[in-house]
Amino acid sequence: MCLIYVFGALAITSGVFSQDTTTLSETRDLFVAVGSSVKIPCSDGEEKGVEWRFNNSVLVSSPVLSIQNSSLKDQGIYTCHQPNGDLIQTVSLHLGYSPSLPDVYCWSPSYPKRAICSWTLTPDPILPTHYIATYRSFSDPVSSARQCQKWGEQDDRQCALEQLEIFASEPTLINITAINALGSSTRIWPIIFEQIVKPDPPVNVSVMVMPGRKLSVQWGPPTTWPDPVNFLLKYTVKFHWGKPETARTMGPYESNKMVLSGLVAGRTYYIQISAKDSLDDGQSSDWSEPISATVPIN
């Protein structure tokens, strides 16, 4: 158990961070790690009859507010009042966690143009957390690190690495640092560009019924794959009927079309396509959304 005694304008320990840049009649933010115990003295703690309130409900008559083994339900606004009810100070209590080591995952849907890295923290810090993401070649000095650019409108735990060297002789190091009021943590993660290639699923999948119980299937390369002419993809076709456990795969194909033959009349088939770098680098894409077609009886 971590016991913290908070006083004055600024206090910081392994379990709590408090900062007051306002007058006593305004709010002071107090950040506390979940599970910590904290004592908060009223600014006029010598006066008898001082009263603490929590979210406007009377909590305790004491010059010092004690919270043992704090939990998320303790979050809220605490106010200290004189015996006549006048406000002395306001404290906004925020509960959360110091950042854990980020778990990093990187992939390249746009080889060789860029790679994308995302990360998660367990448990979630809950508190506002800022991230610094940089990357550099293994043997380059730290000062040469480039900023990993934010990727996506809403997600601040995802960024893009641009202009990576292809077929490099050494890994690229991505450095993710998470910072909040309770602390910070850093993960340095090595990646080999070719090993993290993972295209997005193929697009514009279509199927056409042909005579002789056949289906003609066509598709296009993912729009995020920047150069399908010089950096070829190969494709695998998966189809099933009735239940997914009946699925069969065919391929790989270097072209963007194929024909399923020997099918059963009257049966509906569900077809999906997956893409992979033609040199077998990295992983296959996820499957495209299924498209269906029924083989005519006559």
Automatic annotation (TrEMBL):
What organism is recorded for this protein? Answer: Carassius auratus (Goldfish)
CDD domains assigned to the protein according to its UniProt record, in alphabetical order? FN3 (cd00063)
Query: Has the keyword Glycoprotein been applied to this entry?
Result: yes
Q: Which residues form the signal peptide?
A: 1-18
Q: Indicate what this protein is called per its UniProt record.
A: Interleukin-27 subunit beta
Q: Where is the Fibronectin type-III domain?
A: 201-298
Keyword annotations for this protein, in alphabetical order, are: Glycoprotein, Immunoglobulin domain, Repeat, Signal
Looking up Pfam families in the UniProt record yields:
fn3, FN3_IL27B_N
